[in-house]
Design goal:
The structure is a homodimer. Chain A is α/β, with parallel strands linked by helices. Chain A has helices at about 1-10, 65-70, 145-160, 180-185, 200-205, 225-230, 245-250, 280-285, 300-315, 330-340; strands at about 15-25, 35-45, 55-60, 90-100, 110-115, 120, 130, 165-170, 190-195, 215, 235-240, 255-260, 290, 320-325, 345-350. The interface between A and B is medium-sized, with 34 and 34 residues.
């Protein structure tokens, strides 16, 4: 069958069997493996004549919480839902196999939005970033050198406006973004505490990532007390990845002119009704600023970001934990694990080695 | 009796019978008239030799929501509770009768923190503001030219960072601060809607204060729907005096990069447990900034504020609604009315005419 296809499609180039992760249907809860199916189809590896597209071979795919949101039928103009019957989309690192676009040529390494598949056609390659620095792991472009990196950098340096010596709390601190926020804060001379969902993660925060302290929120029946224990002087900056109960407890512990940077609220995404946050009066009493942000607003500053972070990686001043799952067929499980807190560090799927 | 006292105290000057509003006990709910008692005592109208104090005759006393908070036994270092058995304190306009302080002399008009009494001794007169402009009503120094004025000015211009043409929503819009925020926003070319708690207030907002629209929150069983009706394009700036349910509904209607300036949350002050606010995820989705502020941080900019607002008053570009209760004996009822929304505009007690 493949041979036949190869012959038939000869005029547009080699045709490859292409494994894809397909969304079966819209979801209303956190994603389950059964919401996706891995299928094979075929794809020509040549760009169609006259097209600006590029054909890529995917190397790494990033598992991100926003992908769960895109599996919902979402009516918000800021989000596009995935399409049932089509492959999921996410951030990936890929190699250009063929290009109809002047800026890209065969062999270029890129990162950006790609399909969850082994090979794919990127119709708007101008949205891809070319990878110029390959002395660092390529997978880093899904993490510390990609969206989670810009997110942590923008949220901490641009939104939180940190000062040396401030008290910083990070939730989901062993995750793709949290681990970087904590390390940025330490580099700035802040006192940093993280929360995470397992003993193992807490050990990693304290022993590998340089956090001053950390706690397992699942073992704390009184989050307010846990925060008071870790921050007897109160919190200047809370980098919120979680929302809900932990945000409510943080509000009781903010210092005057404190800032709460809201990056995400993963605890709230799949509740039938979001939890009520009761301690907002502290916003007035303590003159607190709560500010949400999205990374796309900071993507134009990507090269400036690289100038800061690449040297930190090369000089060993910052480390990045990755949780790499091998094989596209295991991608659904890897994505689902994200919503159970199974991953330690940035969850990535290795699709193919370069 | 008064004659006798006058003779005995002759060496330190004239002694006057002094009516005072005394806090009877700490409270846990909104203030009631029975939490206060009006008593008379006597006071020498001469400053004691060697003292820096000034003796004042109070002309106007301001009723402010924060006074209810100070009637609670409050453990927060930012607040001092009133003392049971002593007069309440608040902002007032007063005339200096005698002064031990170089900066003040007999006949000066001042505003600042005074006791709830007819005559009083101000031990730290350096915290009083001298009134230099008397071509405007003196009562204005409890309102548009005093703390509510600086509050509205700072909250709107400094915290909300408004732009021409933006959509502005103000709660408690007929109150001391809200009416000014709405007028500042109109002067800036914004579209302004206010909420208030009676039909009469809504009419005043629309017909006297120049709001584009207004609604009675007590008649809206669906606040989200009311906001969608008034703001089909969404809200850029919400000036929050109320908190709770209306804040929650506003969060569903914020525009991208919207700002919520939290001035107060009067709906929450006396609840056994504050209401839960459920729609905070919109902070991320819409990149919303929520920021609390307190007026004391902006008091150093008072003269700059006067330069802006005095001309607006003189040129008739801004109006200020006052609700004036006559007589110190009626002050407890006036203060209590504030928490029932009885006042229309700034609630003031006229203690004495100059």
């Amino acid at each position: 069958m493949l041979q036949q296809q190869k012959i038939i499609m000869a005029s547009v180039g080699e045709v490859m069997i292409n494994k894809q992760v397909i969304l079966k249907h819209f979801i209303n809860t956190a994603p389950k493996e059964s919401d996706m199916v891995v299928k094979t189809s075929s794809l020509s590896l040549k760009v169609e004549p006259g097209s600006n597209a590029v054909v890529v071979k995917n190397l790494y795919l990033s598992c991100d919480p926003f992908m769960g949101s895109r599996m919902k039928k979402f009516e918000n103009p800021d989000f596009n839902s995935f399409i049932p019957g089509s492959p999921l989309e996410g951030i990936g690192v890929a190699k250009v196999l063929d290009s109809g676009h002047l800026d890209f040529k065969k062999g270029n390494l890129v990162w950006g939005t790609v399909g969850w598949e082994e090979y794919g056609v990127v119709e708007n390659p101008e949205n891809l970033f070319k990878i110029h620095h390959t002395d660092v792991p390529l997978s880093y472009y899904t993490g510390i050198l990609g969206m989670p990196g810009i997110t942590a950098w923008a949220g901490f340096y641009k939104v939180a406006a940190p000062k040396k010596g401030e008290y910083v709390f990070v939730s989901a601190a062993a995750g793709a973004v949290g681990q970087l926020v904590g390390q940025f804060a330490k580099l700035m001379g802040c006192y940093v505490v993280g929360s995470a969902g397992s003993k193992e993660k807490v050990e990693i925060l304290k022993n590998k990532l340089g956090f001053d302290d950390a706690f397992n929120y699942k073992e704390e029946h009184d989050l307010d007390a846990a925060l008071k224990r870790c921050f007897p002087e109160g919190i200047d900056i809370y980098f919120d990845n979680v929302g809900g109960k932990i945000l409510d407890a943080v509000l009781l512990n903010m210092r005057i002119k404190g800032r709460i940077v809201v990056c995400g609220m993963i605890s709230q995404y799949y509740l039938r009704q979001p939890e009520g946050v009761r301690n907002l009066l502290n916003i007035v009493i303590k003159r607190v600023r709560i500010e949400g942000f999205v990374v796309v607003d900071y993507v134009p500053q990507y090269s400036k970001f690289l100038e800061v972070v690449l040297p930190l990686i090369r000089e060993g001043k910052i480390v990045y934990l990755e949780d790499i799952t091998e094989g596209l067929e295991n991608a659904p499980a890897a994505l689902v694990g994200l919503f159970n807190g199974r991953n330690i560090g940035k969850q990535i799927v290795l699709v193919a080695r370069e």
